[in-house]
Specification:
The structure is a homodimer. By secondary structure, the first copy, chain A, is of the alpha/beta class. In chain A, 33% of the residues lie in helices and 25% in strands. Chain A has twelve helices and 26 strands. In chain A, the strands form eight sheets. In chain A, strands 6-3-2-10-22-21 form a six-stranded mixed beta sheet, with helices on one face. A four-stranded mixed beta sheet of chain A has the order 1-9-8-7. A four-stranded parallel beta sheet of chain A has the order 14-13-12-18. Chain A is globular, with a radius of gyration of 23 Å. Chains A, B: It holds the Pfam family NDH2_C.
Amino acid sequence: MVASVEKNQRHQVVVIGGGFGGMYTAKGLASANVDVTVIDKRNFHLFQPLLYQVATGTLSPSDISAPLRSILSKSKNTKVLLGEVKDVDTKTQEVILNDRVVRYDTLVVATGANHSYFGNDQWKEVAPGLKTIEDALEIRSRIFNAFEAAEKETDPQKRRALLTFVIVGGGPTGVELSGAIAELANKTLQEDFRNIDTSETKILLLQGADRVLPGMAPSLSQAAKASLEKLGASVQTQTRVINIENSVVTYKQGDELHEIASKTILWAAGIQASTMGRILGLRTGAECDRAGRVIVEPDLSIKGHKNIFVIGDLANFSHQNEQPLPGVAPVATQEGEYVAKLIQKRLSGKTIPAFKYNDYGSLAMIGQNAAVVDLGAIKLKGFFAWIFWLLIHIYFLIEFDSKFLVMFQWAWNYITRKRGSRLITGQESLTLAKVITKQPTIEKTVKV
Amino acid sequence: MVASVEKNQRHQVVVIGGGFGGMYTAKGLASANVDVTVIDKRNFHLFQPLLYQVATGTLSPSDISAPLRSILSKSKNTKVLLGEVKDVDTKTQEVILNDRVVRYDTLVVATGANHSYFGNDQWKEVAPGLKTIEDALEIRSRIFNAFEAAEKETDPQKRRALLTFVIVGGGPTGVELSGAIAELANKTLQEDFRNIDTSETKILLLQGADRVLPGMAPSLSQAAKASLEKLGASVQTQTRVINIENSVVTYKQGDELHEIASKTILWAAGIQASTMGRILGLRTGAECDRAGRVIVEPDLSIKGHKNIFVIGDLANFSHQNEQPLPGVAPVATQEGEYVAKLIQKRLSGKTIPAFKYNDYGSLAMIGQNAAVVDLGAIKLKGFFAWIFWLLIHIYFLIEFDSKFLVMFQWAWNYITRKRGSRLITGQESLTLAKVITKQPTIEKTVKV
């Protein structure tokens, strides 16, 4: 283990995680009299709200990602460290990484959350969730491979299972995925195949609650459902998944059990905090909720540890409403900005009032010309909601060049109804890796 | 094994490989009275001349790729089949895939070539070549990970090895990779790190012949070398790699042996035909050259098999010059167009003269404002060559939407000197796959 060699004279802020929470903490401290170290396993910040567009072939990974170093290159007090955090020692005030130890005066933990399979982790492989670039590329491969396999399949029953897509979870991700797959099947791919009619594709959205998008106004849930059904997706509410096995999803509606054969099952339900929550619980005695999120104080710190903050999807902040704040980008962003401000005030002996989330509203894209926007007083649906959705997302894309590229890509897709990013990648590299290990002489076998 | 169920009444053309050769064969047959089946392992066509820009973080995979189905969707007589060809039966006229058999009347084989390690296949893992999207992403990861690791390394010797890049092979790919890495180190990344000075990066281009770009005029080789050295790369000609082991490259210049420690070694030398060459040799008695390429007749068919054509990098066509035609996109393109024309003429009982390659020249990009263009009578270098290089590549990008996106991306990179596609991806997915298999309960461990 290599100890950090730099002499730490200034106040050391260590931020774990380069998502919205971590990024905005670091950006907020750019001109503060502190040293900031941002630790992440990945070298890029990911604009997660658009990840489903990578999964469905509209955007490329780099359209919605920007190198952390590039975002923070102007912040001369900030270092980026690629590494995996294993533990935290609150006595010596050190973060323990795989290959080194980093001392902190203030620690900000923003490592996010994953999907929860509600105790059925064996479903993960057959029903992947959408959290990372790799998840998105895996889901993209599955979607487009299903159409490819259907084109080759001669057995009608197997073909039907290949052309059936089941999406579990009716929050924004589930709704957006369902809408995008419906558009693919009924518009984008219509001309591309010779043996199958892609408009026979069945898309089933299974939602536990009594409506989709339960975070929004009921009228918008209704609009979203209508838009999805117009696009050709079937929305099933008050539905619970009982089992996933051998490409068959068993689900329950009331007392009725249903079964559907599907080769492509996507998971967009539940929240499971990253394991840093458990580590912090062990090391600080912090209380965690059932999803593993750390219950934080009104100033986002951990009880009894004023210099350790937890923000974003990993935090359970319940001081404002009865419910904890939702795991969305604006919450993480505002929490990051708050913590950056609080750290600076404290260094000059002052403080600021408790954190308060300003909810500017929420929005979801269903398809071309169809979205829903809930700004409290103002509710939009259809074309204007769609335009609003586009503008907001372009505005918040952190890196300027992506903004224009994404806008251009969208405009182009809109005009041509094409999706340029339909590459099925990754599998060959796995196969190749195996080939190289086992038979170094037969390279790439038959390269067709 | 599932036999093809369609009734084959029309003349059946089967094209193996969706690169330049295969694509242009299929496009040339779009309005012919034949059925065309294009077989490829991948679902996309790759614009290989720009692959080095994916490897060095300027472009995204989908910028230089287009779905085969999308390119061929207007060709109603053409089917795309995803599959891996295992064998060819010339008696029954069948192509044997992993999961089915496809009958042909005319067969066009265009499966390309890989790099050759000259019998040292154990170097492949430490010195990857650049042929596929996965290769490009792997090389991109290695390049950017090397800078990341150098930033963390405290031992000066190890740090030097991390900041040393060795590129083997001084053809267009080697020259373009060297130039791009030099620009990264000396321009793009200059602001991003805190512990290292990326301008101390050492880039070594090792070339066997007495000059780089031996396919071009000597004056342009000289210009390319000068441009590379101005960018900070070192060009070593008449140099042979003797060994690669433990991150040390041993090379020979005359009688002198040299050693250099490098953590990032890239391979851009030699040609090794894909194994379809060997299969065709076995099944048709066709003669292959030392690189495994099939020696073809003046009409690109195999001797004694007038209905089997071999084109592109897999073919050795030596009827025009003493040397076989080079393995470049324009040769494959023109060969594909020729074969498409010949097939149609034959069906109406006619024929056409032997294939003749029209060499419009060659070009290579060294860096911003620096390229070399050899059009025979006209030779360009520097800024005008660079502009010419840009226009030509944009013109030939098959899919219209990519053209504009790539142009936009380049313009943006030119103005900002940023590279947006610097994501290190893929490794986590491998790690995760392992985690999922072995410990299904600990998901994504500490997600930072």
